TrEMBL record:
It comes from the Bacteria. The lineage of its organism: Bacteria, Bacillati, Actinomycetota, Actinomycetes, Micrococcales. This is DivIVA domain-containing protein. It comes from Leifsonia tongyongensis. InterPro entries: CHP03543, DivIVA_domain.
Length: 182
């Protein structure tokens, strides 16, 4: 019996053995003493990647499960931090991170992140800047936005676009803040 639906034998999906091994690791980490050594974090889950294989696990099913797993770990981490720091300090930390994000997004359009060379592809600056505007409205005006929108946003490629690593790190920080204040 499979944990997730599999793709057809001719289609690519996630490597079954890698997914199963990761899920076992996640179970052990979640079942471990919450006050002990952290074996796996929500950020670790967010950055998990699997190789592809024909007839592997359905990527959409595994990705959905990873998002739920990340939420569960983030909730646990949030409660542990709130217990250790107190509610006020925890929310102050989240507000500080949100302000750092807003400071980055306050830069002029087309200049919010470093750019790749004209010979290299990066994220389309207009796409990123448009999404940045939505993030600003989320943080400043409390406009609705889900963590899934941040997790699944995609940007077209562009020569001389924004450096992907910088944009991805900012999106990770946004996800952290959103999960922190749920």
């Amino acid at each position: 019996m499979s944990t997730f639906p599999r793709t057809r034998k001719s289609k690519l999906g996630y490597d079954v053995d890698q997914v199963e091994e990761f899920l076992q690791q996640a179970r052990r980490a979640y079942d471990a003493d919450p006050d002990g050594v952290t074996l796996l974090t929500a950020a670790d889950i967010r950055h998990t990647a699997f190789t592809m294989q024909k007839g592997g696990y359905s990527t959409s099913h595994v990705d959905s499960a990873l998002e739920r797993l990340e939420d569960a770990f983030a909730s646990r981490e949030r409660e542990a931090a709130r217990s250790a720091l107190g509610d006020s300090a925890w929310y102050d930390e989240a507000r500080t991170t949100a302000q750092v994000i807003l400071n980055r997004l306050d830069r002029p359009e087309g200049h919010r992140f470093s750019r790749t060379s004209v010979l290299t592809f990066g994220y389309n600056r207009a796409d990123v800047d448009k999404f940045a505007g939505r993030l600003v409205r989320y943080f400043q005006d409390a406009r609705p936005m889900s963590v899934d929108e941040v997790r699944t946003v995609t940007f077209r490629p562009q020569r001389g676009g924004y450096k992907e690593i910088q944009v991805d790190l900012l999106l990770d920080s946004v996800t952290d803040v959103m999960l922190a204040v749920r």
